[in-house]
Hints:
The protein has 521 residues and is α/β, with parallel strands linked by helices. It has two domains: 12-47 and 118-239 and 469-504, Rossmann fold (3-Layer(aba) Sandwich); 259-458, Rossmann fold (3-Layer(aba) Sandwich). Helix content is 30%, strand content 27%. The protein has 16 helices and 28 strands. Helix 1 (24-37) packs parallel to helix 2, helix 1 packs across helix 15 (464-482) and helix 6 packs parallel to helix 8 (214-224). The radius of gyration is 24 Å and the shape is globular. It holds the Pfam family GATase_3. Pathway: Cofactor biosynthesis; adenosylcobalamin biosynthesis. The active site is at 344 (nucleophile), 432.
Amino acid sequence: xxxxxxxxxxxxxxxxxxxxxxxxxxxxxxxxxxxxxxxxxxxxxxxxxxxxxxxxxxxxxxxxxxxxxxxxxxxxxxxxxxxxxxxxxxxxxxxxxxxxxxxxxxxxxxxxxxxxxxxxxxxxxxxxxxxxxxxxxxxxxxxxxxxxxxxxxxxxxxxxxxxxxxxxxxxxxxxxxxxxxxxxxxxxxxxxxxxxxxxxxxxxxxxxxxxxxxxxxxxxxxxxxxxxxxxxxxxxxxxxxxxxxxxxxxxxxxxxxxxxxxxxxxxxxxxxxxxxxxxxxxxxxxxxxxxxxxxxxxxxxxxxxxxxxxxxxxxxxxxxxxxxxxxxxxxxxxxxxxxxxxxxxxxxxxxxxxxxxxxxxxxxxxxxxxxxxxxxxxxxxxxxxxxxxxxxxxxxxxxxxxxxxxxxxxxxxxxxxxxxxxxxxxxxxxxxxxxxxxxxxxxxxxxxxxxxxxxxxxxxxxxxxxxxxxxxxxxxxxxxxxxxxxxxxxxxxxxxxxxxxxxxxxxxxxxxxxxxxxxxx
Length: 521
């Protein structure tokens, strides 16, 4: 595709959704994969992402994990421009604001509004820069474009579409029910100038025969003047690199044990502020590994491996863990030699002492005292992509943390483990993504099984990178087979069609509005 927009930028479109977890990330990734396979130089973009799943790019920037996945679908390396604003919630009211890959401070919902003007400029500039380097940019919205209470400060949905003149697709999740009401209602709540950019709909997660939908599709077209450009089927196992815990199920992965063997049972503590739980994805593709996310002592007690994953609020989630009695279970596991793994925030909890004047401002608190370590939170965030060797195997990962961990190596039985340490059957590391390394993962699971007294043997042929590639290809196939790709090309080449009708909410007469159906953005 060689055509450019009048402003010199590459063609782009925006994928929005009726709700969070409607399938925006998946559809955007599928479009990126489909275009890349057509030989198009394509890139993903999300102006503002609220997620605790992030990753470090090759240039040392922190962005949302979903955009890194979409970059992989595009066949390119991720960079900070693909997600210029990342919000990492630390509680119900405040978030860390990451701008162009670097922390820029904390903000609550009210104070964040004061920054919207300059953040909007950053979002628009970042998109323009991507459009100058790529042939197509596929943008993803955030939440719903019909959050009418937030429209004035919107910079990720219709605010971005208006600023950049983007045609918009709205995705609805039919598996949850109410998809036609969601699609029609989303459009009807938008002001006319925003509606002028909404070019069509996509229905996601459909199970059954499409002909059963036809009356609804026809009525939606008649009511809105817009086509449904795709009815996407329900696809099992498309949970890799999900954006937030809304998509986090209690159990994940195939969990198919080899004949004659019991599965290796892995219990992952589901913290209230769990982050980078995508670290567990690589375990769930292992045949014979049963992964559960747990919140109660009895669920954790009899697992072969207990994992404390990352968290955005180490001290607060440690208090939550103690309130639920999980600390006693972990202490008993360590005493009996039953495996425990802490990753990043989970590793910090295993320390003797945590000194935090930065993240929680709680000062010094006692850790679980399962590893001979002391954690001190620094104002500067550590972002990196470390490499090393463990179990004789090469390991690469990434790290994102404020906590700096000091190990007392004089302790009896303390040995190195990646950048962290191990005592007995308790391991800890700040490295995210380590389990994605196939040979290391198999060696680690074999060690876990031995400590747990199990005869488990990891499958030698499991390749996590190949599994991720196969799933990205499945998304590309889904777009090619179930979306009107001709219509997508036309939207990229020509933008939203002119003359799209305005849809009015019930009880609102056209005369009551001062807007028009024209695109004034």
